[in-house]
Protein 1
Amino acid sequence: MTLLRHTSADQDVQREALTVNPAKTCQPIGAMYAALGLHRCLPHSHGSQGCCAYHRSTLSRHYKEPAMAGTSSFTEGSSVFGGQANLLAAIENIFTVYDPDVIAVHTTCLSETIGDDVPQIVEAAIDKGLLPEGKMVIHANTPSYVGSHTTGFATMTKAMVDYIAQSSGAEKIRDQVNLIPGWVEPADMSELKRLVKLMGLDPVTFPDTSGVLDSPQTGIHEMFPAGGATVDSIRSAGDSCHTIALGPICSGPAAKALFAKCQVPQTTMPLPIGLKATDQFIMKLREINGGFVPDEIMTERGRLLDLMTDMHQYFYGKTAALWGDPDQLVSLAELLITLDMIPKFVVTGTPGKKFFKRMGDVLGDHAQACKVDQGSCADMFRLHQWIKSDPDKVDLLIGNTYGKYIARDEDIPLIRHGFPILDRIGHQHFATVGYRGTTRILEQILDAFLDRQDRDAPESGFELVM
Amino acid sequence: MTLLRHTSADQDVQREALTVNPAKTCQPIGAMYAALGLHRCLPHSHGSQGCCAYHRSTLSRHYKEPAMAGTSSFTEGSSVFGGQANLLAAIENIFTVYDPDVIAVHTTCLSETIGDDVPQIVEAAIDKGLLPEGKMVIHANTPSYVGSHTTGFATMTKAMVDYIAQSSGAEKIRDQVNLIPGWVEPADMSELKRLVKLMGLDPVTFPDTSGVLDSPQTGIHEMFPAGGATVDSIRSAGDSCHTIALGPICSGPAAKALFAKCQVPQTTMPLPIGLKATDQFIMKLREINGGFVPDEIMTERGRLLDLMTDMHQYFYGKTAALWGDPDQLVSLAELLITLDMIPKFVVTGTPGKKFFKRMGDVLGDHAQACKVDQGSCADMFRLHQWIKSDPDKVDLLIGNTYGKYIARDEDIPLIRHGFPILDRIGHQHFATVGYRGTTRILEQILDAFLDRQDRDAPESGFELVM
Amino acid sequence: MSEHSPFDDDSEVAVTSESLRDDLLDAYPKKTRRKREKQVVVNHKQADESGLVSLPVIGANTRTIPGVITQRGCSYAGCKGVILGPTRDIVNITHGPIGCGFYSWLTRRNQTLAPTDEHDNFMPYCFSTDMQDENIIFGGEKKLAKAIEEAYELFKPKAIAVFSTCPVGLIGDDVHQVAAEMKEKLGINVFGFSCEGYKGVSQSAGHHIANNQIFKHVVGEDDTKRGKWSINLLGEYNIGGDAFLIEDLLQRCGIDLVATFSGNSTYDQFANSHMAQLNCVMCHRSINYVADMMEKKYGPPWIKVNFIGAKATAKSLRKIAEYFDDQELTEKVEAVISEEYPAVFEAQKTYKPRCEGKRAMLFVGGSRAHHYQELFAELGMKTIAAGYEFAHRDDYEGRDVLPDIKVDADSRNIEELHVDADPDHYRGDDRAKAIERERAGYKFKEYDGLMADMPEKALVIDDINHHESEELIRRMKPDLFCAGIKEKYAVQKMGVPCKQLHSYDYGGPYAGFQGAINFYKEIDRMVNAKVWSMIQPPWSDQADQNAPSSSSVRRDG
Amino acid sequence: MSEHSPFDDDSEVAVTSESLRDDLLDAYPKKTRRKREKQVVVNHKQADESGLVSLPVIGANTRTIPGVITQRGCSYAGCKGVILGPTRDIVNITHGPIGCGFYSWLTRRNQTLAPTDEHDNFMPYCFSTDMQDENIIFGGEKKLAKAIEEAYELFKPKAIAVFSTCPVGLIGDDVHQVAAEMKEKLGINVFGFSCEGYKGVSQSAGHHIANNQIFKHVVGEDDTKRGKWSINLLGEYNIGGDAFLIEDLLQRCGIDLVATFSGNSTYDQFANSHMAQLNCVMCHRSINYVADMMEKKYGPPWIKVNFIGAKATAKSLRKIAEYFDDQELTEKVEAVISEEYPAVFEAQKTYKPRCEGKRAMLFVGGSRAHHYQELFAELGMKTIAAGYEFAHRDDYEGRDVLPDIKVDADSRNIEELHVDADPDHYRGDDRAKAIERERAGYKFKEYDGLMADMPEKALVIDDINHHESEELIRRMKPDLFCAGIKEKYAVQKMGVPCKQLHSYDYGGPYAGFQGAINFYKEIDRMVNAKVWSMIQPPWSDQADQNAPSSSSVRRDG
């Protein structure tokens, strides 16, 4: 008995209004996740308390960690008269009870629809003396009816630049680069920092959820864990010699704002998932460090290549369906192409102008063989209908937990990647970026294929050696 | 249709002569693996060429890497008249053609049975001028009819001490410790070295197959890859302040020999797989370093614990069957016990006196509920018969690739661990030691259970969130 | 009643309930403290001369204070997620930006069991109008109408429900009008919910909005007659399969379960539910008014039941039997209880000694914080503090206080349906039977609330927030804390296991007898897990040297 | 024949076969060089005036030089692993220390297909006496006898075979005596093999030992008559399912396959094999003497066939039909070829343009290095160097050299069975038919060897070792190298894909028509894989700065 059985293969009415099984969620959760990557910051959701509850729950379910955040708890009154009183109360309560260094306010569809002016309210809070010395409130406008969770993440990341980064006017610091990692797992952020350091550079990384959403069990709950980008480090981002923004959707806006504000040159590049995108990342760092790549990184690259040669026979010609966030999808698709696999179906709910172009560049000759869609109705239902109607069932699914329903119905292995992963534990501890991270993805894909082969092999073809 | 179907559950005749599906292999392959962990060393099998072919094939199939080694290629003549001529020819050919720094000769059942005296033959080679300046030949006696692959590994490791290590007579070097890692994956050796360095100590690690059997794809075949313990470093092992031998079977003999030869105090302890064994390892290092544990290690420990708490509900009360090498089995069993799992059935083909005692200590209260066996007929056939006859099917198998036949027949998930893993690629790149390595095992166990749960769930119980 | 705090006996420091309460409140700014004082209550029960016990008054169902890090969610969550979520054959379209639909997509573990492939089960789908900027500016009604049509064309459901999210009310989309038009056009039932997130002060408002609309639009649509012992189960949402166990028990007793609101439910069950002879209310908070409305409009009386806890389950089954007052039913019920109880006793014998004396705190839901105390009691565990996330005063103090509850502005905004007896469907016989049973001493509509069952001087806290939870745990080190996913990991970081009572941590079922056994095992697992003892490294009792900074200790080698 | 080396046309440097050969040999000490000179041969074919082509003489089936890092294995591997491995219903007990049994346990991919659960399939089992120290000192015969009994008791097989490992011969265990005793005692066939690893100079000795014993102990046990077109297939081991495809072709042609030695085989097939009318030899090396012995003892003649390559498959099928000389069979064979060939053409059309002109090297086995050249030729690829791991001179130079081959001490140790016509079973009619067909120009026992088919001046290397392989690859950069697992990863580290022709890299089957198509696809995959172009990082063409040592560049931040 299948679960998503209600539509037949040929049934995908031209939808323009109804989204079914979305491949995205809303901006505020992205802003909340980004804000958690700021050390001693309490994210604050300015809207109904349900938003905050949903976002915290989803983040906790994905990261298996506390996701602390405040809410303005709008009621009908605040919706009519504006949320100023609520936000003022929140600011007072939060600084009094929880004592963060920063409150990072993001708006919701509610506060945006009624037109609350957060900076003005924060001004009022300052006037009322609600901000203790040295503390700050930053904000991002993240109406839920614009963009997606990834653009919300981008907007809060940009807010860190707008509110905090400064150019001291002195010469840029030669070895200091800004690293804007985009929405990746905490372990990815650690891995990216490690690579930058190995390249002889000092990364100013923001947001940085490593040490926050992968924090240790110590018997003590730290309201503000040891990790996260400090305000001081972000302030000094204005003095870095370069900004590397990973993923145009999540990290591009902050990098551009930092250039505009502090004249830090920036490069926006693909998330370094896969050999090629990581090569690009290392190439750029090499340009900045004066032109060297240490042996350690060369070895990691060579190990990845070694696995790629060893595993190639199992990957060649296999097809996959992907859904999720554009920055991830482009790099994942490129990875599959370098493995001689075909990312046959790709959807993202996140809107944005350059996605088709980027996917086209990555797919190259294979573009004709692949279906790519983006936007409101580019949802997992569409993806599933494509899969159902394809006579050659794809060999692999890569995406978030929601893919398990398609995986079950169509009997296709699923590799969980992206956000949210609600039904497994551990992903936040294993990077999938860089050469080393890519080896993890390779292992996962190979295991998926070989487990399947073992499962389906007849007695005579059940193999000891592979 | 099952494959290992030929015996019913109640059928396990008291065997004393026939081994069926062994949980061990022979000494020489262990000596070969150990010798590959010596930089610029060519292992050499003194016996029939088939041994060498089998060992190289098995190592290559496990590590997906070249496993270079020579053989004395005994024919009937050498078997009658002794292998001296063959070994002399081999030594000449190897130094001339392949130019290693060291040839590490191990014997086989053949050369042992005929009684070849390797040191005497090497003397003869030196007399004949077959050893170039600065080169050396070391040897280990590894008759196949004694011990197992793990003791062969131990013997060659000890040979490194016997032939190479020296005490310079000066005071021991305060921050230098010897790390004898035992038979673990190359990535494990890297991880152990990383931990020792984080503890502020300088590890002399031997054998060390990292950088040898996980070498990068660079377009160049290095006959002797960059990794491996150098002769110089092992020489200085005699001056280290302490030796940490991981696993009494694989590493104990070398540590003891080093104490006898150079008076380096030694501690033989369990392989640091799992929280407790890693704690023990860190405790010992902390004793040596004067008493500190850096934050990085504390964080890694805390992250492991965090996963243990988060995953506990899925592990609790689950049972497992394990087979493989004693040093691994003891630590794996302990890991399962700390997770509130029960290692119900455990077998190893490797003989050795303290295994039952060590398992008993680890199993504690659970010892009565578990079956443990060791030695010639303690094979995977016995393990399988135990599983067949147990009314509560165990929930998990942990062991090498050969377990896949039991896994298929009994429909029990298998986690591949130990040697050899012939049907998957990548394991050599992912450590399972230390706090971080243990998180990998935890993730694998959890995935195994949850994949199973997803597979078997009825429609109504198929869960998005876990 | 003992005078000392439930905290005193185990803790080393002299913490009294009162002192702890003060400590919790001291952290707040004045205004916040004033509000919280009413909601953080020491359960001091006072008996008057006649022995009548009076409970302290608690502040409940009031606004959450901004910024305190609350457990609460919103009206939409209560309406779409909790009440309508478990019904499998209605296409639920969220009208709004994508988030609300996304977060309520399969996240509540309300299981369902479509008997065959031919039966609809839309629960694995998320339907949304995914409102965009332009829909906010120019209105979303057209998009909603189109979305309903598209959903109909694809899925051909028997009913479509529309859920309003925050901006919908603000921009003035009339979802009810659109629903009415589409009902007309498509010929299936289409109805809307004005469950914007800002409505009311918690999920509770959403429950009310949901239940009202189901009552208005669905209940009473199908007049098929039911068997002789027919009941509805109200306020049971089949988390982790609870309803399956209860259904099984009822079936074995021969009781005809017409509808569950809304665990494992279907549209048709709701439509026929008014034909049941008795309503049995599990979660008093989420649905007691539906029972009242049904009684008024159709005649059947209602009783409070509880299937959490073995004793409570037996009691509830007996109470149902007692209502029908039929020897055959009574015998069947007793037979079922006799079949089930030996395993329960066996389990209690195993697990009680392992759990006895351990101390729990429960802060969750609108009834679970009460009901689950039954199970802890069966394990010999003490509940030393508890409170609800979205309950009202009657859920704490009992239905006696209903007349005293002030209706504030936030609650006034939630529609109260005015219901009269339905001239065509009111069943006087049910009413007559109820009156007869009441005369015989049978209690209807009886619910004494959580506080009556709590120990003297236990802390009862409404709408607890993170600060208060953390202080409670830090000070009292309970053996177990029960809450939800948002709290879980923070609690556990303090070394205390946290049992989720919303999702059951993906365990369960915990209802009925079998469920009780499941729960015993689970609690034993949690409070006795080895891992909690291993958090401190073995060297933690030894003084650490100053570690060199990590950069200086790294070497190559 | 072209005079220039096959290397010249593509390579930039002027490498000739002769110069390359010199370079390979130059690295050796004198004595080693002298020996290898005989085995590293430039394939210079000389035609005499009559047009008769003579090939160079190659050294083969001689001892491997110690220390050179050879591809070769041992006699036990050839006996237990290769020949007996694929037979599913014999319990194969390795008498020796554990290793030999362990390494030959399921590692050869010789697939088998037991028709039902009731049929024995012992291939997934490894049986060993696991000899210990004391068995070496005091002898292992008792343990062996006990092991045979235990195996019988557990598995009740129809036959048990015992394989001797190195120490067995040395300590004087008489496995044949033990086998005979146990045969007597258990009432099933039990037989031993003196296949100690040191016997002979390669696996080839083991094949011989294995085949002899099967011929002595099993063949001829069952005289059941066979159908009109009955054959045996000798020297086909069902790697990756090859035999399944061949079986299918034969069956569709109506040919009665009595026994395969030993792919997908059973004990009973061997027992009945002498009743076949024709023996078809695939791997000449491993088994041609069995064909000879069968002919001598029972009468049926033998031909060389080859099912690797589409053209060769068609040719082999036609040759079989030609032998039986029956219109019905000929038509069936042509029909099967016509059914299969369109897909082959289609595949060639797709893959040939992608592979054409690429250069391969093959160093493997005793027939594969020859047979697989067929497939490369079908793809338009050139085989520029090749050689066997364990073949004899006749496998290189053709059976014409058989009389010239000197039998050295190592080979003399391998028993040659002396076989005479079996008075009771010799079938004169088969013999008569063969003579008649031969008169009609039909060729029996014809095998011209590998060198005849290799290009002029290609390098032919017997028993190649790592040094020679590495030099060949480094100098010639072939597009593909074919060898085994021991060579694979070293080859690939040089950026050249390596196809395993023992295990097929866990791909296949490659036999027959479908197999050819599989192979085309696989070779296309390998020679055109993107990964080989990505080995050099994009910055490799830029000068690197001196990197600071890694310790100094690490920072915290």
Protein 2
Amino acid sequence: MHSVGISLLIVFVVLACILGVASGLIWLERRLLALWQDRYGPNRVGPFGLLQVLADIIKILMKEDWIPPFADKPVFVIAPAITVITTLLSFSVIVFAPGITVVDLGIGVLLFLAMSSLGVYSLVLAGWSSDNKYSLLGGLRAAAQMLSYELFVGLSLMGVVMLAGSFRIADIVEAQRGLWFCGPQFVGFVIFFIAGLAETHRLPLDLPEADNELVAGYHSEYSGMKFGLFFLGEYIGITLISAMIATFFFGGWLGPVLPGLLWFIIKTFFFICLFIALRAALPRPRYDQLMSVSWKWILPLALLNLLVTGAILVSRTT
Amino acid sequence: MLSLLWLVPILPLVGFAILAVTAGQLARKAVSVIAVGAVSLSALIAIGITVAYTITAPAGTVYSQTLWQWMRVGNFAPAVALHLDALSMTMMVVVAFVSALIHIYSTGFMADDTGYSRFFAYMNLFVGAMLTLVLADNLLLLYLGWEGVGLCSYLLIGFWYRDPDNVRAALKAFFVTRIGDTAFAIGIFLLFTSLGTLNIPAVLDEISTYAPGSTLPTAAAALLLVGAMAKSAQLPLQTWLPDAMAGPTPVSALIHAATMVTAGVYLIARMHTLFVMAPAVLLAVAIIGAVTQLVASFSALTQYDIKRILAYSTISQIGYMFLALGVGAWAAAIYHFGTHAFFKAALFLGAGVVIKMLDEEHDIFKMGGLRHRYPLTFWAFLFAALTLAAVPPLTITFNSKDLILNQAFLSKGGRGLWILGLIGTFLTAAYTFRMVFVVFFGPAQSRPEKTPARSMVAPFVVLAFLGAIAGIPELLTAIFGSQNLSSFLRSALPGPTRDFPSADGPWLFQLIYVATALAGIAVAYLLYERAPQYTRSVVSTSVGSWLHRWWFADWGFDWLYQKLFVGPYVVLARINRNDVVDLFYKGLALISRVINGLLSSTVNGNVRWYVAAVAGGAVIVVGLVVIL
Amino acid sequence: MATIPVETGFIIAGLLFLLGLIGVLVRRNIIYILLAIEIMLNAAGLAFVVAGAHWEQPDGQVMYFFVLTMAAAEVAVGLSLVLQMYHKFNTLDANLINRMRG
Amino acid sequence: MTAIFYISAAIAVVATFLTITRVNVVHSLLYFICSLLATGVMFFVLGATFVAALVVIINAGAIMVLFVFVIMMLNVGPQSADQERARLRPHVWIGPGLLSLLLLIELVYSLGRYHTGVTSGQTVGPQQVGTALFGPYLLAVELASMLLLAGLLGAYHLGRGVMTFMDRKP
């Protein structure tokens, strides 16, 4: 009973933190973008505009929950929930610090992959159920893009799994005690980063929504809290990918002097900021470029990385 | 030199292969060079072999050359082997030489024909097959050559296949000879099953251990005789040969006069031991020969197509050869074959020249007076005709036929045959000179402009000359009793059974024959040159016209066969059109069609139907598993 | 982890399989047929995994892995065919494209 | 944990049943995905963790997305649902239902005669599966890769014409 109590406690704390972080990110992103773009950003509501988030949440919750009459209602409703659910579920396997985790699963990495692959449905179904050609196009793009890049998420992680010899996330972090995997798996890291960008459909790889081409892509018809869920899902996704990068390639909680949890948070925030910086810095590629890069460059590169890693491992063990 | 023997049949076959593969793509000159070259080379080698053979005869007078083993089925292992003895050598050299000359002639005769290359391909194939037949060491290889020449005969009779009549003639030749071929094949099977070998010397050795007149030799000889009869156009299977004149004239000369039709004679001569073991069959051979020559002579007397006259003449002369074989004068038969090959080929070639010059005119009564226009042709033709009529002063071949008659007279109970032969001699002279007088004498019916090509006249003259002098060796015997063809052939064939009791005998008989022949010529002169009105008056009487029509229509054989075989066959076929046996197969077809319908209705392209079938099957199978 | 009777696992697999079979038999839309085939494949895989779990051996999972491979290949080709079919016949009804008559 | 197995089994069966009865293709697909997830849970409970993850990643996450993708490409709209509804009259269920019922009865009957035992409940992890795959099943893995290659080429070849056709469409 005791352990169940602790688990429950962890679950709720993690949930609260993540939701808080995700909503905080809205403010952070806007402020950072403003900084990089040499303007102010939100600064009216509360100190440094910190309460802007609250105001936004109130606005979103108060909005009429409108469902277009031509939409496929049940699917339309489910779609935004999926993205939040899957990303949140992925957090369940993350080890924030030794012992601080929802569930220490033997197939932690696989669960993360499974959830990220299920996340596609959110976009695809949203695009389909809206019964709107822009949404449909956004959904189609999302399906193709995420199906492709999901593969590289998995492939790039396999090198890490090979080095660690386990799918358990705690083991993977422990295996980086001497050397972070961003060294030996640098290629894997780069691929994972790009693929993560695509998986969270963040700028510059936000082609499923691409405002100036597809209005707002798959969520054109969404408003109110349903839109809010997509919004939230996106920020949770950023946090998840950042946390995963920190865990898989940068030693997770490992670090000198400071406590593990703090190290983890620092690393995660660094990557979150990197994500936001990318949004500020890079233009959006064309859709066909995105796809051809994925199959013609990243896939061979990921396979080569796997092959070399495997060869080195084999040569070392024999 | 003898070791080059294999080249003799192979060279024409190589020529055929080249011509067949190039399929008319070669220039005419190239075709001529290949075809004539192959056969001429073959003939030269054959002559060389003959010389080598006569100078130093191989041990046992037989030279055999095994090329390869044909096949091996159980203990049956026929070899592709060549057998050279006096008999096959005589045949080989005559065939090769005549073939070469006729090939040369054909380059002129066929010069404008569209099927030039095809013609020479067939001709080369024929020569190859004929030489295979002649040189074969076992009956199977002989049969291969036998069928090969039959095929070529068919192809060449129907060479101008655009005319349905030619095709019909070709088919007739094919079908009629097929009867004989079938009998021949059965004979071969019989010999093989009884003796276990098809090697000819071995067969003959085996067969000589049987009692004369016992069943096996008689049956085998009879079957072989049927084959020979069909091939050599002997009564009653002679009907195809006159129609076979539909082919080009060189074909008639080569295949249907000089070589292929004498294959029957050759077969009987080659298997002579077998026939000696079957006296009844041998007697039949003699009678068939005698009757055939007489019947064919009468028919020849009435024809007006120059080639048909020659065709009947061929039948008749082969009849003489059969007569000779029948009375045991083997050497005489082969001797007559040799001279006949020369003079008959010459006559055909001469006829070909005339036909060609008169624009495909075959009717002798539309010719006439040609001796002034074509003197060389006339003289050569006259020589050949005299040879055929067996008149001594100008030609020396007379005694090839006379030998036969002598032997017939001497054989037991052969007086009747002798008389028939003598009548034949008279008729031969009559119809031959009827042709000569009508074609070359009398008033000219037309004024032909063309002159024959040298390549056509030269072989013709050579052949006529050879025909005329072919009797020299035999004449020398008669005068000096020295080495000659008959005794040469005796190394392969048994000699005459009897001889004249006194030395004066031959001369007396010689006189009778010459007188008969001269009488024939005189009658022909009288009736066709001097007083044609007598002919007309004879023919205009009812008996005369009836006989004329009867003989003209080949003694009604075609009519008889039409009524006897073709008609009933057609009627039977019509009755049996929906025949009883077919009902069974139709039923089978119906059942399979119904099953097919059922099955194909299951394969309807409907996926769900298939799945349902699979599921149903699963229910049944699992059910069975559960129950059992 | 749960211990359940192997027969129960098989019966569940069988139920799923039969539902898939009914789907194939009843539906005429070719996408449904492909979907139902997926159901059947998955059910067969379940039976393998149950058996593997009984013997505590990886072989059941290995078989499921192969079933999955096959399903992936089948779906790739099958869906391409569906696209072609829609392109050519402008219908998804499997009954209307039975041109392959015997 | 046993209860979880039975609950997910029930979910799987119900979801599968709904899969084959719905008239809207996407709804059917969603039910099937649900069924797959339930199967994944069953696998997990049975101790087959690797396959449990595979079901979700590949079957639910990739193969089914392909289905959705194709449905979206074909733009199967509401009229298709009406068509389906028209086709699914009650009588079409009778034959297949009976057939399947028969099979089920046979299956239950034949299974009822044996008592093989229970599942062990032991986890057979990815490592063991991987060792088996690249040990005794190496040839089969190679063949599977060949099969995938064939599928890839086939899909590429078949899809090419359609894609150009789609491009031409205004």
